[in-house]
TrEMBL record, chain A:
Domain ABC transmembrane type-1 intervals: 348-556
GO terms under cellular component: plasma membrane
Family: Belongs to the binding-protein-dependent transport system permease family. CysTW subfamily.
Name this protein carries in UniProt: Polyamine ABC transporter permease
Cellular localization per UniProt: Cell membrane
Automatic annotation (TrEMBL), chain B:
Protein name from the UniProt record: Spermidine/putrescine import ATP-binding protein PotA
Originating organism: Roseivivax halodurans JCM 10272
Source organism phylogeny: Bacteria, Pseudomonadati, Pseudomonadota, Alphaproteobacteria, Rhodobacterales
SMART domains assigned to the protein according to its UniProt record, in alphabetical order: AAA
NCBIfam families: potA
Subunit organization: The complex is composed of two ATP-binding proteins (PotA), two transmembrane proteins (PotB and PotC) and a solute-binding protein (PotD).
Domain ABC transporter intervals: 11-242
EC code(s) of this entry: 7.6.2.11
Known function: Part of the ABC transporter complex PotABCD involved in spermidine/putrescine import. Responsible for energy coupling to the transport system.
InterPro entries in the record: AAA+_ATPase, ABC_SmlMolc_Importer, ABC_transporter-like_ATP-bd, ABC_transporter-like_CS, Mo/tungstate-bd_C_term_dom, P-loop_NTPase, PotA-like, Transp-assoc_OB_typ2
Amino acid sequence: MSDATADPNKVEAPTPDDPLAQAKALDNRDASGRMLAADGTPLKRQLAKSLRVQKIRALMLIAPLLIFVLLTFIAPIADMLFRSVENQIVSETLPETVEALEDWDYESGEAPGEPVYDALYNDLFLAAEYKNHTRLGTRLNYELTGVSSLFRQAGRDVEDRGEAYLDQFEELNDQWEDEVVWAELMGSDEWLEAQRAWSEDSGDRLPRFQLREGVAALLPETTRSFLNFVEFIRTEDRESPLDEEPWSRVYTALYTDLMNNDVSAYSGPHAELLQEAAAAVPDFETQTTKEFFLSVDDDWADPELWGTIQAFSPDYTSGYFLSAVDMQKTPEGAALRNEDERIYGLLFKRTMFMSLMITFSCILLGYPIAYLLANLPARTANLLMILVLLPFWTSLLVRTSAWKVMLQQQGVINDVLVWLGLVGDGSRLVMINNQFGTIVAMTHILLPFMILPMYSVMSTIPPTYVRAARSLGATNMTAFRRVYFPQSVPGIGAGSILVFILAIGYYITPEIVGGTTGTFISNRIAYHISSSLNWGLAAALGTILLAVVLILYWAYDRIVGIDNVKLGG
Amino acid sequence: MAQTAENDAFVAFERVQKSYDGETLVVKDLNLAMPKGEFLTMLGPSGSGKTTCLMMLAGFETATHGEIRLGGQSINNIPPHKRGIGMVFQNYALFPHMTVAENLSFPLEVRGMGKAEREKKVKRALEMVQMGRFGGRRPAQLSGGQQQRIALARALVFEAELVLMDEPLGALDKQLREHMQFEIKRIADDLGITVVYVTHDQTEALTMSDRVAVFDDGRIQQLAPPDELYEAPKNSFVAQFIGENNTLEGRIEEIGGNRCTVRLDTGDIIDANPVNVKNKGDRTRVSIRPERVEFNPDLGPEAHTLKAEVKEFIYMGDVFRTRLSVAGNDDFIVKTRNRADQHRFSPGERITIGWLPEDCRALDAS
């Protein structure tokens, strides 16, 4: 090269097979400095393209498992977590009431006004027809005792209010009893024709209901409740409005409309009937909705009740979480529950404490075994390993029940102690149905989960380290403490995380041997899932449990470092 | 002479035997005496008992029989941590959870040394192996050669007078290994420490050692300085194990003084130097180093020569290797220096070869 630069005349153009020229050709860059592939497309895109096939293939390979996990694991958990805040039941069951309550102020200390009760009457009547007022009652009963029976009672009696008007209308003219009259009054002619042509046996769909023109303006309340009624019998009963007498609610609405609106200009079907009724209604015996609800139960005037409904009217609520930490969402805001109603804090603390105790016992019992396993000759170690794994091959229930046999007051251990004379027959030790029993049984059950990670870490520690330490002047004890033990810590960490996380969510063993003082938070969650059916609270408790585990995991990562956790190798 | 030498010896094995299972002896009747400051290598194939000897000296194995002395004192019943012997392990055994400085400081700490003094000694030891800047690193952050240096420094930091090394360079690549050989040798000489070095690499043994003990079958086959070991092997195992070697089998035809005649199995007669053969008619295996064989020899009137056929000629840069078929042995190698006037043979050529009788050693036939 130096020759070439010295004499410019000798410089030759690079020939195509000049390797330097080829290298330069490959080092193509575009204007923005991106590397280009041999064919001039950006190298990055070319690379992505060639990797895409691989990625797709990899995705296809894991797809079955991914879908399985998503459907059976992630989705249910997400759904469960969602339930801990979900609260649409109030606004869905009592939409109008919730809206009407917006203007009411709990601080006033008075029951809400007439419009709220009107709305409640509307909502409750519909809910009672659809039979979901009891569900709402149960939901609100979690927050305020007594609501459940209040709703059930009102749901039963709500019919009565309309009946009173219905009777008076019928007394006036028994045509009001006739469902056909109602259909002609409310429905359009086209619809009537179609409806009359329809027969149940034909299997055709019911014709779509059409309102008669002008009737909505004339009788707004009646129209609304009649539409609700038609919708209900159409979808729930698949009945024709021509064969079904309207709900009593419709009569109440008719009364209201006739009191408020002038029907004298009306000239449609049954105009006379309507005008006759309009003339008669002022003399009807009547009762406001508020009076009606108070006649059902005085508690409907209780601001506490309305405050609770108002507090729980949003679609999402913190109520379950507050319950899960022994608090309560009251109309005034979050407040601690009464001393004697607080159980979850205690349960969480107990669960943490006992899980730590179990983890600690597992470390104490497991470490020497793991050490032996890792350092004995292979044949002996294998035998010992079988003993460690043996519990895995026995049913969890059997093992737990065995502890019941061992620990109970008439059980093996007490019998032996009494026989040895260490314990008097009258003062047999209580070792089961308490914390002690749970800790003993769970330590036994979770021990393999501690031993296996410890063993796999210890078996990777070469014996030369301890030898080196000894040759450097350390006693056996010092060599263990300074050299062997620190290297086995990742195993202890892995085992502890595993055992602690398993313990904190354990259910079966505490259920069987825990009694009342040895149960875990998971037992309470199971109770809410299967007995009290308060899934929202169960979900909130579960979410808190999950959060606690994640926080501990995070803390462990910060303190020890998750990289230091080894399950093997 | 043995009596006084062994009493003066710094390290001594006396009639040491070792058995693991009570049926076979791994080490059979080992006797060895080392003066202070010697660099002794135990060399041998795997399973020859060399590592067991080292472990007995370090205290990790107990001798089944016999006595091991250090500085004139029996150490059979002294636990390893009280022997004060530095040791470098095959895979260095640097404590992975400690920094380099902590590793070096460990033997000083367990000896109860004060902090200031520890730091001083650690610093000095690191500088000795030219690793002064690496005190804060973890072993995993070091290369193999650097770990090797640290392991060496750790074995030396507490001023052990005896350092044992168990194949310390086995994990390094060739170039680094050669470099470390000189490094270790230099440090050992500078500090005047006594070193027992175990290896199965004969080049390593020859380049580093004051003396080499060749182990086989639980015994020391020969204990001698490297040159003697190479040039005057005492038996055919040593001759085979150390360096390259041509052998021919035959019977002693005549023997007298330091000269004998051997009739090979093919009937040819050659001259040799009898080493461990005594009687006329004994089977023998003669051994000739490839570089001591001459082509077209002019060795004097009485010398015997052999006919040979060239099988293969290999160019190796500094030397040529010529493979010959000689007296029934098709693997007879001759090495010649790459000189301008050196003839390059081609396969099939028939030539005459010969050697000085003192270069051809008649050894046992086993």
